[in-house]
Design goal:
It contains 13 helices and 13 strands. By secondary structure, the chain is an alpha/beta fold. A seven-stranded parallel β-sheet has the order 3-2-1-4-5-6-7, with helices on both faces. The chain is globular and about 65 Å long.
């Protein structure tokens, strides 16, 4: 089957990383795999497997006829059978299907605010969902929402996944000059960096820590406030946006996520694959991902987040043991090999 991943941007983000992961994984098992970016390229482009065919549309407007015609020609020239549209790219995929009735269309719902689905705008998505052949959701809440609200009957929940290296890394266990903490999260309000900073301020009074931040900053008030807080603290190091954080993760002790809402965050999968102990909020699919192999805390609770971090800093054996057991769980349940088998069954049935 000839499958095209469609995504609006390759800037750092969960949907963007999954578009690349699907394209690479399908190419790896012998599919004709394509990835098309509509609006904005980014650092994730360098992660693409050379076997993946790539096209950038340079779309300027919501309905950009030049970009749409370019996509239609590409679909016909390469005999694409299925478009796998990620996130907000679904609208352009629908337009492409209007002009090619034999094309199958799967929409991948990466919505990260699954704790606040009541506030989610439903139009025009509901109207055009009648043109979807299938929907993939990143957690059970989103699957239920699609079945209830949208006009597509074939909906499946598939785990997000990462491509596990042939020799998974082991996190840093020696404590030399202090503890290395890390948080992978773009500067968005749902990630709640301010609760993270308050908790780490308290920890830093008793322990020698460094908080490493990885993520994209945006030109908005939230990002500006986060940068101001970073500059006010000597123990924080901001690494910017990274296409592959594994080299940094292998030198960390604890992975943190303080989000108020999530879908299925790739950050936790990255932490686990690198055998980090994890402290994260109990939102989205986080609990199902980490099981009993991490510390879960309520969102927005500074005391609980502080306590969770301290438990790992004070108990080296617990930190190493749970980091290792989480790594085993991630490799078994959230690797590309396990999820792609389910994906193939789903698209074959379409």
């Amino acid at each position: 089957m000839r499958i095209l991943q469609l995504i609006d941007t390759l800037q750092p983000g969960g949907a963007e990383r999954m578009a690349v992961n699907y394209a690479n994984s399908l190419a790896e098992i012998g599919f004709h795999s394509f990835l098309v970016v509509t609006r904005d390229e980014g650092v994730f482009k360098e992660l693409l497997d050379p076997k993946v065919e790539y096209l950038y549309l340079n779309k300027k407007h919501r309905i950009d006829y030049i970009a749409l015609n370019k996509l239609i020609r590409y679909i016909k020239d390469n005999q694409i059978e299925l478009i796998h549209a990620h996130g907000s790219s679904w609208f352009f995929a629908v337009l492409a299907k209007f002009l090619n009735k034999n094309l199958k269309l799967v929409w991948h719902d990466h919505y990260g605010k699954s704790e606040f689905l009541k506030n989610r705008e439903i139009q025009p998505l509901r109207y055009f969902s009648k043109d979807f052949d299938g929907i993939i959701s990143v957690n059970e809440k989103l699957k239920g929402w699609s079945l209830e609200k949208l006009l597509c009957e074939k909906v499946v929940f598939l785990n997000n996944f990462i491509q596990i290296p042939s020799k998974p890394l082991t996190a840093l266990h020696e404590i030399e000059s202090g503890f290395e903490l890390v948080c992978i999260a773009n500067f968005r309000a749902q990630k709640d960096h301010f609760t993270l900073f308050e908790a780490c301020d308290r920890v830093n009074k008793e322990y020698n820590i460094r908080l490493n931040l990885i993520g994209k900053s945006f030109d908005d008030s939230y990002s500006q406030k986060v940068k101001e807080e970073i500059n006010a603290r000597k123990y924080i190091k901001y690494h910017g946006e990274l296409s592959d954080p594994s080299k940094i993760l292998s030198n960390m002790h604890v992975g943190l996520l303080s989000s108020r809402s999530e879908g299925l965050p790739l950050a936790i999968l990255e932490y686990g694959a690198n055998s980090l102990a994890v402290v994260c909020t109990e939102v989205g699919e986080n609990k199902n991902v980490v099981g009993d192999h991490a510390i879960l805390v309520p969102p927005g609770n500074i005391d609980a987040l502080e306590s969770g971090i301290v438990r790992y800093l004070e108990n080296n054996n617990k930190r190493i043991r749970e980091g290792g057991s989480l790594q085993a769980k991630i490799i078994k349940e959230y690797s590309n090999k396990s999820v792609i088998q389910e994906y193939r069954q789903f698209v074959d049935n379409l």
